[in-house]
Amino acid sequence: MDGLAIGGSGTVVAPLNFLEPMVEKPFSYNYEPPPGTPLRNTREETHQVEIYDARSAANQISLDREGFILRNAPTAASDLYDEAQIVAIYYPECEKLIAQATGATRVLAFDHIVRNPARSTSGNKIKLPAGRVHNDYTAASAPQRVRDLMGDEAEDLLKRRYAEINVWRPIRGPLLSSPLALCDARTLLPDNLIASELRYPDRTGEIYGVTYNPRQRWYYFPKMTADECILIRCFDSAREGAARFSAHGAFDDPNTPAAAPPRESIEVRALVFF
What we know:
The protein is mainly β and about 270 residues long. About 10% of the residues lie in helices and about 30% in strands.
């Protein structure tokens, strides 16, 4: 699909925050770092990027090619801030949605993040929108997550194709603030994916920071409703025939009204086995 051919009236030029190229391995702490150690060793560089309105071509976009798709999928959960409802109702819905979209034989939703700037404090789990372009898994952390979660089954499961897919949904709509920019996986070059450590008290995870390349092509779905969600393929073990990695990040839409409410969203992470 030629991105230049699908831009609609919602296509915008907006700033995206990329990782500034660096020599040492990037890291950031998700807790108070040791004395004398910075919270992170990275710097950002912001580029004005054309972000195409993908709604007009939503039916042409595929997980295997671009690495993301839009789905209409209302949820039966009445409160997506309620941990019990998220796990009991929303996780199974996400698992079913992913299985239908991919043909997977098994899907395990295992983690989620709720984002709302108005409700995010140091005392709760609600987070701010992620304003840096990134991808949630690397070639190293993707199989490690399977080992972390699947116990004795892990090594056997890793012998076959598996993936890690996120389901991203507005909690309230239409979403006007901090929409999600998504990179066409075909335009994401390996040299622009930088393995970056996320340091926790009990473990060290790894994601990809993303450096800027003018060849990258970016999309978004304007004014998403709470009945819509995006499936993002963050990793696929298949080395041919499927988008293996992707990239995404929140951005400031210049068309956002001044009185727009803050973004409320939820993302669920899932292991996907074929």
